[in-house]
Amino acid sequence: MKMLFTSMAALFLTIPAIAQETSIDTTTWFDNPSTLTQTDGASIYAGVCAGCHMPNGQGAKGAGEYPALANNPSLMATAYPISLVIHGHKAMPPLGGLLDDEQVASVVNFIRTNFGNNYTDNEARAELVKNMR
Amino acid sequence: MSFNPEGVTRRSFLGMVGAVAGAAAMYSAMSTMGFASQSNWRGRLNLQGAPDNTNILILGAGLAGMTAAFELRNAGYNVKLLEYRDKAGGRCWTLRGGDSYTELGGFTQHIDFAEGNYLNPGPWRIPSDHFAVLDYCKRFGVKLEPFIQVNYNAYLHDSEAFDGQPQRFKEVATDFRGHVAELLAKVVDQQGLDEAVSVEDAEKLVAALKRYGALNDNLDYVTGSESSTFRGWSHPEGGGVDGKPEPSQVNSLSEILNSTLWRNLTTGDNLHMQSTIFQPVGGMDMIAKGFEEQVGELITYNAKVTRIHHEGDQVTASWISADSGSNEQTETADYCICTIPFSVLSQIDHDFSPRMSKIIDSMPYASAFKAGIEFKRRFWEEDEHIYGGISYTNLPITLISYPPYNMFSDGPGVLLAAYPWGAYAYQFNALSPEERIDKVMEYGSQIHPQYYDEFKTGASVAWHRVPWTLGCYGLWQDREADYQDATAMDGRTLMAGEHISYLPAWMEGAVLSALDAVERLHTTITEI
C-alpha cells in the first residue's frame, strides 16, 4: 500500500528542482518527540542537518543562507563543528538537547569525512563532546 | 500603588470616573490604564505632528512592518518599506490552489487545492484577547469567522492505548473528570479533608462534585444515564420504537491514566485557545492583504537587504534584487524600524552596537512543520461527524485540525494534517516535500483509515526551509538578560517583530512590538 501510494503521490506533487538521490530510509526516524534516535552519522545527518544544509551538504541561500558543508575548510578543526552543533550560532539552533554525546560525535565525524571533506585525523569522541557542553 | 503626575492615585481616579461617567467609561479608563485588558494594547494610536520631511525606512513588510508603516504614514512621516518577497505579509501567509512555493534547496511545490481550500502555514488562530490584531481586522474590513479549537467529537489518540484506536474527546474528558470527582467526593464525604474544608463547605463541595463529575446518588462514576449524558450513549437517544437510549461503558480510571490521553484535555483551556477564537474567512493572509491595501504603495518588493549602516543623523540600507542578485541600490532615512528576523539579520552586514549584535547572533528560529492534505470528500464530517476542531495524537504528526469553514459542503476539503515541533519537526524538515506527505499519510491513516482512498493532493511548509525566516519564530537564549536591550534604539534603528514581544510566534506580538516602536520613535522625534 505504501509503495503504491509513493508512486501515486509522484503524480500529484512536482518533482523538486534538486531531487534527492534516493528515497530515504526512515525506519529509525520519528521515534521520540524530543530527541533524535538515529545513531549512525549518516542517518543523523539525513534526519536533522539535511533540513538546512541540504541532503548533499550543498547549503542554501535565500534572504539569509545556510553555509555549505561540502568542501568546507572550517571543518578542519574538530572542535569547531562540535561547538556549533551543541551551542548553535546565528541561525543555527543549538542541538545539544536533541543529540547525545555519541550522536554529536558521529555526525561531526560524518560531515568531516563526506561531501568532499577528508578530515580523518582528530576524530570526534563522545568524551570531547561531553567536555564541550 | 502608583500615582499620576497630579498626585491622584489610580484607584481614586477610577472612582471619580466611575462616579461621574458610569460603568462604560470606567471600563474604558480601566482598559486604557491596563487594569482590565489581557493584551497590552492601549487602543488605537493617533499620532500627530510629525516634523516635515522626516523619512522612516522600514525593513520587512510583514505584519510588524506594515503596522509601523500604517501608523507612521498616518502621522505624517515619509515612509518606505523594503520587502524581500514579491508579496507582503511575511509569516501571515496562505497557500492556495495555483500558488507555487519554492523552499530552500530548490524544492518547488505547485499547490493543487480546489477553489476555496487552503493551508495557513504560519499563524492560523486569533485569540479573542489579541485586541490589536482584531482591531486592525475590523478597521480594514477583514472578515472573521470562529475557529474551532475544542471539538468534543474529535479524537484523542495514542498508538499504545486502547489498541491504537482513537477515542472521542468527550469520552476521555467525561471519564477523567468523573473518576477524579468521585475520588474527591468520597474523601470529602467521609470527612477525609476536615482540616481543609469546613463542614458547610464539604456538603456543598460534594454536591458540586456530583454534578461536575456526572456521579450517581452513591457518588460513583459508573456506566449509566448520568455519565452517558456527557460521554455519549452506546445506542443513541432517538424517536419512535427504537428511541430509548442505552448507556455507554465508561473506561476505568486506570485505563484513562495509563492511556496518557489526559495530556491534551486542557489544551483548549489555555488563555489563548479559550473560545471564542477566530480565523479570517478565506485564509490568514486576508489580514496581510488588508494591510497591503493600506500601505502597499510604500513597499518595494523583491528587495534583499545586504547592508545597514548609520552615518551622522542618517541610516542607510543597501539592497539588491532578490531575483537577480544584481543592481545594488541604497535607501537613506532619518530613522529605521527593522523587522527582519534575527536569523536573517545576523547574516546581513550591519553596524549595530556590539551588545545588539550579540543578541541578534544568539537568536535561532524554532523548527516547526505543517502539512495540508486535500481529500476528495469531507469524510471526517460525513463518516465521523467531526465538524472543525482538533484531534491530538502521540504520532509524529501531533495533531489533525478539521476545517472550520465550508462545513457540510460536497467535494474536497483540506485538513491540517500535521503540525509538530521539536525533534519531529526537524525530521520532517529534512525530508523532500513528497517524502513528507508520504509520512503524513502513513501516520494520519492510523487515525482515519479513509486517508489513502480519499487522497487528492498535499502541500507542506517546513519552517527551517523558508527562505526569508530560516525558522518559525525567534528563540531567546536568555530573554531575561537580553530582552530590554533588544528593544532599545540602536543608532537610529528600532527592532520590531514577534521576537520583540512576550507573545512570540503570535501576530499580536508582532503588531504590539511595532506599535510600541512607533510610539517611542514618534516621541523621540517630536521631543528633539
Terminal Cα separation of chain A, in Å? Answer: 45 Å
Strand order of the largest sheet of chain A: 1-2
Radius of gyration of chain B: 27 Å
CATH architecture of chain A: Orthogonal Bundle
Main features:
heterodimer; A: mainly alpha; Cytochrome Bc1 Complex, Chain D, domain 2; two-stranded antiparallel sheet; globular; disordered N terminus; B: 528 residues; alpha/beta; FAD/NAD(P)-binding domain; Polyamine Oxidase, Chain A, domain 2; five-stranded parallel beta sheet; four-stranded mixed beta sheet; 33% helix; TAT_signal (chain B)
Describe this entry's structure for a reader.
With 133 residues, chain A is mainly α. Chain A has a single domain, classed as Cytochrome Bc1 Complex, Chain D, domain 2 (Orthogonal Bundle). Chain A is built from five helices and two strands; from the N terminus they run H-H-E-E-H-H-H. Chain A has a two-stranded antiparallel sheet with strand order 1-2. The N terminus of chain A is likely disordered. A five-stranded parallel β-sheet of chain B has the order 13-2-1-17-24, with helices on one face. A four-stranded mixed β-sheet of chain B has the order 9-8-20-21. Chain B has a four-stranded mixed β-sheet with strand order 16-15-14-18, with no helix packed on it. In chain B, strand 20 and strand 21 form a beta hairpin. In chain B, helix 5 packs antiparallel against helix 6. Chain B is globular and about 80 Å long. At the A-B interface, helix 1, helix 2, strand 1 and strand 2 of A face strand 5, helix 13, helix 14 and strand 23 of B.
